[in-house]
Every structure is written in structure tokens, then in C-alpha cells.
Write a structure and sequence with these properties.
Elements: E1 2-6, H1 11-22, E2 26-31, E3 50-54, E4 69-72, H2 79-84, H3 86-107, E5 110-116, H4 143-163, E6 167-172, E7 175-176, H5 187-197, E8 201-204, E9 210-212, E10 214-215, H6 216-228, E11 234-237, E12 242-244, H7 245-256, E13 262-265, H8 282-288, H9 296-313
Parallel strand pairs: 1-2, 1-4, 2-3, 4-5, 5-6, 6-11, 7-10, 8-13
Antiparallel strand pairs: 9-12
Helix pairs in contact: 1-6, 3-4, 5-7, 5-9
The structure holds uridine-5'-diphosphate.
Length: about 325
Amino acid sequence: MRVLITGGAGFIGSHLTDRFLRENHCVIGVDNLITGNTRNIAHLVGHEKYTFVRQDVTHYLYFDKQIDAVLHFASPASPVDYLKYPIQTLKVGALGTHNALGLAMAKGARFLLASTSEVYGDPLQHPQREDYAGNVDPIGPRGVYDEAKRYAEALTMAYHRQHGLDTRIVRIFNTYGPRMRLDDGRVVPNLIGQALRGEPLTVYGDGRQTRSFQYISDLVEGVYRLLMSDFSEPVNIGTTEEMSILDFAQHVSVLTGSGAGIVLKADDRVVGDPQTRRPDISRAKAVLNWSPQVTLSEGLPPTVEYFRQILTSS
Ligand code: UDP
């Protein structure tokens, strides 16, 4: 297959690229590099089956070669990033998704949308199943991302139902691993970066809010299986290993041997910060025979090592 991945120089996009190349497919990566980084694809320079195109996918996409699958992963995705780029975030979810769907239509390609657990907002159902419609404030600070992805899902299903386009929707839960940006503001790079610099670890609010952190290789496997399946309804991909942010900070502190402690920053609690998040993954298990394989204790050490290298080389 020839696969086009938007957001191809991002954290997830670059790992997906590696996976498709390993399976001997050709990959075209498209990225405008506002939050992606060529460092993530530097190892692919000269690879005969890889092409990189620097382009903003909110502008018209044209490729003369045949494309068999379009994977739409372009978007700022951390709260700090999408608050910095609110309009780009809305545009890439709306116009970018429209262009990517149009490209898939023109090529007769399969289309896969990277959606998010954020479509559930601050959930009133726990754990979150795919049939839960969510609790999102359209004009809250996270609305720019949440609503962009909700619109992107609606558009994807409209192309599926109206045009019979072969589509997939993955709802991605918190994912971490090497190639995350140290300064993307998320809890994983923030806390590991602080620990490695000998600074106190900042926990927002009371630290009792929960997240479920899945390792990047599990996500890549889930996305790959979903693309190869024939299932067009949304599928949650995430781990069920849920913990409070305070527990997560303690984990990082012990693993890194950080002596600087943890500070609770009650005032830094972000408005609209979801209080709980854990996927119900029965659908992924039933449809894709997928379940997460990597525990936090296994996934954190290579992630810490990656950030250590970034810090010492910068
Ligand atoms: N958080 C924190 N300290 C930080 C960064 C984030 O306590 O330095 C909290 C944040 O308030 C949220 C959780 O960690 O409750 C996860 O935040 P993140 O930005 O990683 O992503 P989210 O899951 O909210 O999209």
C-alpha cells in the first residue's frame, strides 16, 4: 500500500510511519511542522519508500500518485498547544479533515481519522464507552480541540454514509513515549523534564484527577489493526491502567530518583480539566482482538531515557 499520514512528523504520526515502513508499505508524510518536528523523521532521510511533504493540510491537497490509505493525524493535541493555536486547531479538524477526506475520495482510498478521548469531555460516564455522547463545553478553553474532533468525526461519518467512503475512527486516550515534545505541556514530559532538571514536580489542582497512560507501541498496534479491519464505528484505544495524577507524579519521582519533591499547584488547575478518564476497551478487544501489552513500569524507563538524551543534547 501507499499510505499518506497527515501530522507525519508528530509524535504519533512518526511512530505510525515507522510501523508502515516496517511492513514494507510506502509512506508519504505531510506536516506543516507547527507542533511536529523533523527530528522525529530524521532517521528516514534517504529511505526509498518514504517521502516528506511540508504542507498545511488546511490547504488543498494534491498528489499525483495512487494512494491506498489516508491517515489524518495532523492537529495540535496537547492542551498547551491547542490553547496556543486555537484557530489552527479548529481549522485542521474542520478544513484539514475535509481535504483529507476529499483526497481519500479522489483516490478511492481508505480513510482513518485520529480522534480523541476528548470527545467525551469531562465525562459523566466511567469508564467511557464509544456510545457515550460526552460532556463537552463548546466555548470552554478545550472546546477548540474537542469540538474540532467531534466535527471531524461527524464529517467522517457523513462521507461514509453519503459517499460510501471506507472510513475508520480511532478515539485515542492519553499516550506517551519517546518523541513526545519536552515542552508540549503535558503531564508526562512536564514531570519527567522537571525530575531530570532537579526541579519539583508540578501537580495541578489536588492531583486526584485520573488518567490512563498507554505506551505508544500499543496505540500503533491498535491503529494498524483498525485500519486493516472493516469496522467503521469509532473504537477506543487506550489502557485501562488508571491512576491519579498524584500517583503518577510519585511514580516518576521514584523512577528518576528525583529528590526535589512534588508541589500541588491548586491555582494552575486548568478550567475544564476532566476529572476522570479511562476507556472501556471491550470493542477493541472484540473487533480487533487488541489489548494493551505495555505497563507503565515498562513504558516509562525508555521514555525517561529519551528525554534525558534530549536534555543533554540541547
Ligand atoms: N497536569 C499536572 N501537571 C503538569 C501538567 C499537567 O498536574 O505539569 C495535569 C493536568 O491538569 C491534567 C493531567 O495532568 O489533569 C493530564 O494533563 P495533560 O496535559 O497531560 O493531558 P490531558 O489528559 O488533560 O489532555
